[in-house]
Amino acid sequence: MSEIPAKATESEDPSDGAMNQAAEAAAPGDAMWQSSPPGSMYDYIKVASFSISPGGLVDQWSLRAEQLFGVPAARAVGMDPIEAFIDPDLRERGQRKMAEILDGREWTGVVPFRMPDKADGGRGEEGLAEVYVMPTRTAEGDKAAVCIVVDVRTLRTIETDLAASQAIFGQSPFGFLLIDTDLRVRRANERFASIFGGTPDDHRGKGVHDYLPRGEAERVSATLRRVLESGQSITDMHVTGHVPGSEERRHWSVNLYRVRSGSGRPIGIAWLGTDITSRRAAAREAAAARRNLALLNEAGARIGNSLDLETTARELLDVVVPGFCDLATVDLYQGLLTGDETPPGLTDGSAELRRVAFASAVAGVPFAASGEPVEVGAVHHFPFNSPCADALRTARPQAVPPEEGGLVQSTLAVPMVAHDTVVGLAQFARTKGSEPFGDRDRDLAVELAARAAVCIDNARLYRREHERALILQRSLLPPGDPEASGLDIACRYLPGNAATEVGGDWFDVIELPGHRTALVVGDVMGRGLRAAVAMGELRTAVRTLALLDLEPAEVLSALDEIARGLGTPGGVQQATRTARQPRDADLSEVYLATCVYAVYDSVTRRCTFANAGHLPPVLVEPGEPALMLDVPPGMPLGVGGEPFEEVEVELPEGALLALYTDGLVESRDHPLDEGLQAFVGALTDPSRPLEDVCDHVLNTLDTHHGEDDIALLMARVQGLPAESVGDWTLPREPRSVGRAREYARGQLLSWDLEPLVDTTELLVSELVTNALRYGEGEIRLRLLLDRTLVCEVWDSGLVQPRRRRARDTDEGGRGLQLVGLLSAAWGSRRTPRGKTVWFELPLPGGEAGLTDPAEALLSLF
Predict the structure, then answer these.
(1) Per mean pLDDT, which of 363-377, 624-638, 689-703 is the most reliable?
(2) Kind plus residue range of the DSSP H or E element containing 443
């Protein structure tokens, strides 16, 4: 081999010098030269070295060369390099390459070689070696060469792997950092640079403080040190920061793990970050949606449980504070609260409102989104140009600008709209430190206000209808202090339903002609408004029948027919037809009621009772224990087909009569008999004032108020004194007319009623004359003095007087017209033995004035 010329370059090679000298002395298989330190890059690239002497032969052969070519140093040293490691089948090509090596120039080329034989004795694969020949000189100055050999196939595999690694690192959709042991960025990929700006090289040397706020940076730095020291990986660590030069908040999910060299020495930390800003935003949106849905569900469950306007407003604030806002108020139109039929609705927004509710999660902070603070219960209005007035005017929510230096940073003024009508305004506010209201919050506020508005409007409609119902119900009850001739009256009424003032029970005191009084107590079976309506119809019917002056049994018979007609579509008009239904007809649509009807005559102190399935009256005579009167019970009203009986009882002066309904004596806790005995036992001192007696009864008995309606009517007998009655019987002859006038004059003068003498004489003359002309039997004249003067003329004729209009040429027929003109009231009624015609005059000094008889006579012609 010719000498290789020297080249003016030197290179360091890991296989020359001491290593090669040691290789010559060591056995080829010595362990210390089996490989370089574990994990060295030379283990991966398969590099070897040898040198060529000035004679062109191999004079040094490294252990790596032995491993790469499978030729021991003992054989290779002294050989031609071509023969040393190139397979005989490949030497022809190798010699051409090697010829270029020995021309004395630095050269790099690829030569073929045969890899070491396989362990099973087979021939190794053909390989390619990249040879780098570096000319040098020996110590004597002779030309020589040092050769570096690399396995081309292995090198290409490493290059491919490196390119793949570079592609993965550079093209990764995740932000990737290699952080050194000083916690500085050693390397960044394109994805990281695209988020934070610049090129990957621009981020070299930066630390976490360059990307994160101070507090967050300290936390992340501590975590990086812990990973570097312990080697423990971190998965899904959430980091929040800002993009440099921007206020945009970004969120990342970061994975950290320690990176080591081939020898196991920590060289840094790998940072793999995923931008989860949009995911966090979506998660917040989903959480907000769940929270809002839960808030709406809570609102549906808690708002509207009361039909009170103020309570409903407070229920809304109980839901939204603090779950939705920190402060809230509700203002309702003043007209809505005062009962106006039509709420203001879409006005100019300046109508008067009343603040009905306020709630705060911040103690001691008044809420005044617009103007001065408004106390709960105060009436106010918003200025025309204010956002609150605009919200009321347009029925759309408005944002209220916060006051400078105030605690509130975000306020929504939301109109409360129900059925296209604005009923008020709700204001929701959040203080500093809370997140300002967004579009989703605005939509939720509108929905919450709308739900509350519907409940408030329902409460308004209920209040209106309830007030109307109460007006109707109160009209069904008799006056609070009824008066009757010859009776001292006291009464109590307690409805079983607290929501209404009237149920199915009723009582009445009806004044009848002749200073008589009808006492009525009844009970419609059932409860609620339906029973109250039926009660009103029956009470009206009782009053109408009583004024016909029918006997008590006749009144109940007619009332029974009316009750049977109440359940039919035609109502009372169908009563007669219903009464003819068979006895076994379906009673499901029939209103059943019990009733006791009594007529008391203050002149005779006799009382006639008729009963329709009601509890018996209780009588307490002076000095005697109370007892229940033996009155035939009869059938309830509405059953029909059974006659009613009457019983007449004479009541002593000062006796106490009690009529009542079953709610007073019957309960689920005790049987009816015990309740009746308790009631009778409570009437121990009838001499006390009647009002006190009523209170004592209700306080003593266990009435269980709320189970049923209670009606109690008590009357103390105070008969008309004998000196207040004038009673005469007249024969059926013309002279009786003059005698009747004399009796009447004398009686009135004895009563000091001289102003009534002329009128009374005239009217008595007319009635007695009619009795002579059209009646039968003897004539009876009776004058009664109580709160008014009553005159009655009795005869045995059954034909009732009929008032007619007399012609100008008629000589008579004007008597009853004259009676109608001069009296306060007049009429006729049947009696067991005929009829009675009567008239009534007010006493002098009363509100009603007297009509001059002369003027009345002139008006008839």
Answers:
(1) 624-638
(2) helix 439-476
Rounded Cα distance, 604 and 782, in Å: 13
Amino acid at 640: G
* pLDDT mean over 610-639: 91
pLDDT at 249: 76
Residues 410-458 pLDDT 10s: 999 999 998 888 999 999 999 888 888 988 899 999 999 999 999 988 8
The residues facing 700 across adjacent strands are none
Are 834 and 795 spatial neighbours (Cβ–Cβ below 8 Å)? yes
Instruction: Quick: pLDDT tens for 665-674.
Output: 887 777 788 8
- Residue 600 CB coordination number (10 Å): 27
In this structure, what token pair is assigned to residue 704? 């269980």
Residue 590 contacts residue 571 (beta carbons within 8 Å): no
pLDDT band, residue 127 (cuts 50/70/90): confident
Most confident of 68-72, 142-146, 507-511: 507-511
Report in angstroms the alpha-carbon separations of 254 from 234, 247, 257, 424, 475: 8, 21, 10, 51, 80
Residue 638: what pLDDT? 86
Q: Is residue 654 a contact partner of residue 717, using CB atoms and an 8 Å limit? A: yes
Cis check: omega of the bond before 322, within 30 degrees of 0 = yes
**CA–CA distance, 555 with 548 (Å, rounded to integer):** 9
pTM of this structure: 0.54
- Please count the CA atoms within 13 angstroms of the CA of 492 that sit on its side-chain side: 23
Least confident of 179-188, 481-490, 737-746: 481-490
* Cβ count near 261 (within 10 Å): 11
Most confident of 209-218, 275-284, 840-849: 209-218
* Number of neighbouring beta carbons within 10 Å of residue 107: 20
User: Radius of gyration over alpha carbons of the chain, in Å?
Assistant: 60
Q: What is the pLDDT of residue 825?
A: 87
Q: Where is 714: in which H helix or E strand?
A: strand 710-717
| Calculated CA dihedral for residues 452, 456, 458, 461, nearest 10 degrees | -160
Nearest to 34 by CA among 72, 64, 13: 64
Which CB contacts under 8 angstroms, 24+ apart, belong to 71-79? 72/28, 73/23, 73/24, 73/28, 74/28, 76/50
Alpha carbon 464 to its chain's center: 22
Cα torsion through 627, 628, 631, 637, rounded to 10:
160
Q: What is the DSSP string of 48-82?
A: EEEEE-TTSSEEEE-HHHHHHH---HHHHTTS-HH
CA angle, 466 then 468 then 474, to 5°? 100
b/e map 530-566, b = 16+ CB within 10 Å: ebbbbbbbbbebbeebbeebbbbbbbbbbbbbbbbbb
Cα separation, 697 vs 680, in Å, equals 9
Partnered with residue 127 across adjacent β-strands are: 113
For residue 290 the two structure tokens come to 């769940």
Is residue 279 within 8 Å of residue 287, measured between CB atoms?
Answer: no
**How far apart are the C-alpha atoms of 809 and 812, rounded to whole Å?**
9
